[in-house]
Amino acid sequence: MDDERRAQCVTAGVLTAGRLPASRAGTEPVSTDLPPSRAARAIGEIGVDAIGARARAALERGGRRAEPLAAFPSSPYLRAGGELIWVSHRLPAAHPRAVRVASPPPAAGEGRGSVRFGALPAPDVRACALPAATGAGLARARAACAALAAAPDAIGAPRGLGVLLVGRTPPFPLEAAVPQVDALGAALAAGDAGAAARAAYPLLGLGPGLTPSGDDFVGAALCVRLFAARVEGRQAAWQAAAARLVAAAPARTNEVSATLFGDLVAGETYAPLAALLRALAAGDCHGARGAARALAALGHSSGWDMLAGCVLGLTGGLGRHARTNEGVGSRG
To answer: What is the tens place of the pLDDT at every residue in 291-303?
Structure first.
């Protein structure tokens, strides 16, 4: 169907949900199958190309409408059905809360208010799925993770708390985290859930940005530690410790980061971190390196923070060399 005929149909109010009715002359329907994202644009909705399971459930509860957050009106996070969702035209990675839309949503200051979404596709739950917890898988994961951590330069130039992987002290304000990171690593290695919770608490909210480094780091460490606990039979103690930290997070950090921290602890995470854990559990060092690179590319330092947390959670340590004070004096 040409553009002129489509425009006439839209003006007449007959183009809905990607379908055209039969003409008044009684002929067969002219066309039926506009892609959902194009159909949504035609009727003033934002088309959805891909969606996470949690985001889909939230939008279904909210009648496919979402509102900007009062505290972060220009962020990509909206509220739908009582849940936060992450909406973007160019998502860097799949996530259970993520919604990849066909066109950029209205920006703050451009009349952005309630946003209505078009038809919701089925969620892809495989991309963010963690591996099955088995004894053999955990042993492979720890060995492969140690090998990965021994060659961090193959992943890229670290940022945030990721610099601990190469033996450097992180820059201000993260250098204050080093004693707590060491204490957390010792508690994780000893299997002491209570000590781990006490060491992790001061790290929550530490660092700049919408998702501070401390939140991403602790969340990833707990995510993999809970994975190990399912194998080792000490799940209750670690779940209780994780629950205390999740309950404390809203008072330590912002709403967006506290929500994502809770997801991460629960094993609902970004696709690259899930892919990394699957590769590690399979003993696939090559695949793990590729997934680690994809993870490290997330955000300014979020991916590196999660990678460092993953290594700490599986091995109980970070870095093979004595730390230097590179970057400590930079407080700008």
So the answer is: 999 999 999 999 9
Q: Is beta strand 77-80 parallel, antiparallel or unpaired with respect to 65-68? A: antiparallel
Q: Which residues of 173-185 are buried (b: 16+ CB within 10 A; e: fewer)?
A: ebbebbebbebbb
Contact (Cβ atoms closer than 8 angstroms) between residue 78 and residue 98: no
**Rounded CA separation 14/12 (Å):** 6
Cα distances (Å, whole numbers) of residue 218 to 70, 133, 297, 332: 27, 20, 19, 25
Give the CB-side neighbour count of residue 303, counting CA atoms within 13 A: 23
* pLDDT band at residue 112 under the 50/70/90 scheme: low
CA within 13 Å, CB half, 21? 11
Using omega within 30 degrees of 0 as the cis cutoff, is the peptide bond preceding 173 cis? yes
The reported pTM is: 0.82
Residue 205's contacts (CB-CB under 8 Å, 6 or more residues apart) are 212, 214, 215, 249, 252, 253, 254, 257
